[in-house]
Amino acid sequence: MAVPGTTLPETVLRRLRPSDAPAVHAAFASADDMARQGDVATPEDAERYVAYLLADDSSHEPWAIAEGDELIGLVAVTVDEENLSGWFWYWMTHHARGRGLTGRAAATVAHWALTERGLERLELGHRVNNPASGAVARRAGFVKEGTERGKFLVDGQRIDVDTYGRLRTDPPPEFAALPMVDGG
Question: For the CA atoms of 115, 162, 157, 29, what is the dihedral angle to 10 degrees?
Answer without folding.
Answer: 30
